[in-house]
């Protein structure tokens, strides 16, 4: 892994922890699932472009799908 991938992974994982905690405490499914996805995505996606696309989609998903 290179530097930019690590930094983007750290950023997305940090935001994912926030989504995860919010979704768990408020009992909302979409922020919870999106948070788990943001936490796990950097472990499996090693290319910066794919990580940015997936991270952006997971960041916006709870805003588009309200439950």
Give an overview of the whole structure:
The protein is mainly α. The chain has one domain. The protein contains three helices and no strands. The protein has helices at residues 3-26, 29-44, 48-64. α1 (3-26) runs antiparallel to α2 (29-44), α1 packs parallel to α3 (48-64) and α2 (29-44) runs antiparallel to α3 (48-64). It starts with a helix and ends with a helix. 25% of the residues are buried. The mean pLDDT is 94.
Task: Tell me the layout of helices and strands.
Layout: H1 3-26, H2 29-44, H3 48-64
What are the main properties of this structure?
3 helices, 67 residues
Number of strands: 0
Question: How many domains comprise the coordinates?
Answer: 1
DSSP summary: helix tally: 3
Strand content: under 5%
The helical percent reads over 70%
C-alpha-based Rg, rounded: 12 Å
Mean pLDDT: 94
Bulk shape: elongated
Distance from first to last alpha carbon: 36 Å
Q: Output the structural class.
A: mainly alpha
- What's the main sheet like? none
Q: Which regions are unreliable across 5 or more consecutive residues at pLDDT < 50?
A: none
Oligomeric state of the chains present here: single chain
What is the string of SSEs from the N terminus onward?
HHH
Task: Give a nutshell description of this structure.
The protein has 67 residues and is an all-alpha fold. The protein has helices at 3-26, 29-44, 48-64.
């Amino acid at each position: 892994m290179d530097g930019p991938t690590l930094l983007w992974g750290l950023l997305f994982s940090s935001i994912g922890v926030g989504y995860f905690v919010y979704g768990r405490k408020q009992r909302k499914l979409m922020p919870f699932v999106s948070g788990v996805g943001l936490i796990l995505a950097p472990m499996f996606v090693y290319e910066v472009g794919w990580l940015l696309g997936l991270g952006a989609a997971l960041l916006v998903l709870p805003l588009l799908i309200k439950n």
